[in-house]
């Protein structure tokens, strides 16, 4: 049984440490009595251990073979080249950033989990890709072949247990995000063909490049449309009930008006009858006299 995986998140603000490592290179003192400013020997250059999660694995940095002349007491070799600081700064300021947004358990022909990754490119553009854990495993195996000394570790596989448990999936999501962060700290890994294809850096996808993504987008739109239709149906029912209530009230008012009119008519008719009766009585009384 595999041991439980405890991810160790790497701090996101790694660019400051990288910049400080570049800027804190100690100047090399030159002999003031000598006018010769030729290149120093590799033995005279202090070795600096790598900074980051692969520092111990890769060992001490070795001086580069391409040496340049000393200017102002600073070594201008390619490993500490300050002339290319602007290019380095541009690369550090806008790194490629993959962010794992979440996961989704799909059940089609077989049940599996996909992880949604937001990739932000060096130009500020972004796109979304979907990868399974097996895709991460294939990427890790390839990186182990290409970079055996500095390949970041994946969260381990899980055997004989439920791989769709919510707590387990959240823990694996954190581990995969840590894997992506550690992977992006190594420039050679970033520029490798396998990583560029994994993150779709060569040909960024549109939202409808694959049938699976189109289906997901269509399902989202369908659910949104169903919610709107249900809301509209409720509003229509409410309007109809209010309309029925108003019609009922109007009919009741009409009935009341008719009753009042009938009462007035009966009252007027009764008054006229009384007048006629009184007139006849008066006439009959006059004849008898």
From TrEMBL:
Gene Ontology CC, one term = late endosome membrane
GO biological process per UniProt: early endosome to late endosome transport; endosome to lysosome transport; protein targeting to lysosome
Indicate what this protein is called per its UniProt record: Sorting nexin-16
Q: According to its UniProt record, where is this protein located?
A: Cytoplasm; Early endosome membrane; Late endosome membrane; Lysosome
- How the protein sits in the membrane? Peripheral membrane protein
Q: Which SMART domains match?
A: PX
Q: Lineage of the native species?
A: Eukaryota, Metazoa, Chordata, Craniata, Vertebrata
Q: Which Gene3D superfamilies match?
A: Phox-like domain
Alphabetical UniProt keywords:
Coiled coil, Cytoplasm, Endosome, Lipid-binding, Lysosome, Membrane, Phosphoprotein, Protein transport, Transport
| UniProt keyword annotation of Membrane present | yes
Q: How does it assemble?
A: Homooligomer. Interacts with EGFR.
The PX domain covers 93-206
User: In the record, what terms sit under GO molecular function?
Assistant: phosphatidylinositol binding
- Cross-referenced InterPro entries: PX_dom (IPR001683), PX_dom_sf (IPR036871), SortingNexin/PXDomain-PKLike (IPR051837)
What does UniProt give as the signal peptide span?
A: none
